[in-house]
């Protein structure tokens, strides 16, 4: 039975989270693995999904699909499920994917599991493990319908990068104009070079930074690492930083490979947004700061002393 993977892009580049979703599908040991890309992409970009384990890529290239219109995406993807006979659809978790996955599962009368963190157990039925309560608990779910839709959490599977090029096929079903009931008229980019929810590395600052005038410490370290910048809630409440950088239970939840927390105490509400990071590094001058309990590496020291040295060391390693 084939597995379908919806791949998301940004300006014609497939997102790493979607490459991971393709790797996840490939590791399920069902074939063929068919990726579906909606909107404008180059042939080379799509063929490269073969490295992640796609056997074939279906490309619905209508420019109307360049905007992430949820209803239209759900319609095209459920048609792709029907036409390929796939039993499973995999999506990398994102706000778009969550909305699309829910609609597709209704349209195909399938089972839905979101925030999946491991490969399914297919030994007797189809069971998945999913993360719940912002990573504080797990749920084992048996998916009972013949077809199923999974959204996969970032960093749940090793990225495969050694496959051969994939064949790219045109897939242009007739679009239902009734699906285009919303149109994006403008997009304003948030500040920062790297977007926080997608970032592989995040450098975050807290009240220990003393004021917005000291954020150059965070920005310079982030620039050296190619990281996104984040902050604790009080920092955004005091308007030292914009609200879209606020990480935690009431803010953005991140799952980077590396999260560096500087001058953040590690309150439970902050940890709720970062506890699925692969590696956590904490820099805090208080050895009793609760964040150290959640850290893989910790530096007890003054941020104003430690951070410039860390940035300089990283820059000198790079040059
Ligand atoms: C309902 C609710 C929801 C919440 N949601 C969130 C959320 O989503 N995200 C969030 O972040 N918070 C949230 N909070 C707030 C949370 O409880 C904490 O108050 C907050 O995270 C603390 O922010 P902070 O660590 O930056 O500040 P502080 O608690 O003031 O900690 C500052 C830290 O900096 C250290 N420090 C000071 N000077 C230096 C220095 N020179 N060098 C190095 N370290 C230094 C201190 O030792 C201290 O550990 C929420 C609270 C509630 C009640």
| Biggest β-sheet: strands ordered side by side in the sheet | 7-10-6-1-4-5-11
Could you tell me the number of beta strands? 16
Structural class: alpha/beta
Poorly predicted regions: none
- Along the chain, the helix and strand elements come as EEEHEHEHEHEEEEEEHEHEHEHEH
Q: Using the alpha-carbon principal axes, give the shape.
A: globular
Determine the strand fraction and express it as a percent band: 15-25%
- Largest beta sheet, briefly? 7 strands, parallel
Gyration radius, in Å: 21 Å
Query: Alpha-carbon distance between the termini?
Result: 49 Å
CATH level 1 class label of the largest domain: Alpha Beta
> How many structural domains does the protein architecture include?
2
> Averaging pLDDT over every residue, what do you get?
94
Task: Compute the number of helices.
Answer: 9
Structure description:
- It is a single chain.
- It is built from nine helices and 16 strands.
- With 319 residues, the chain is of the alpha/beta class.
- The protein folds into two domains: 3-179, HUPs (Rossmann fold, 3-Layer(aba) Sandwich); 196-318, Rossmann fold.
- The protein has a seven-stranded parallel beta sheet, with helices on both faces. A five-stranded parallel beta sheet has the order 13-12-14-15-16. It has a two-stranded antiparallel ribbon with strand order 2-3.
- A hairpin with a 4-residue loop joins strand 8 and strand 9 (137-142).
- The model has no long low-confidence stretch (mean pLDDT 94).
- Bound molecules: flavin-adenine dinucleotide (FAD).
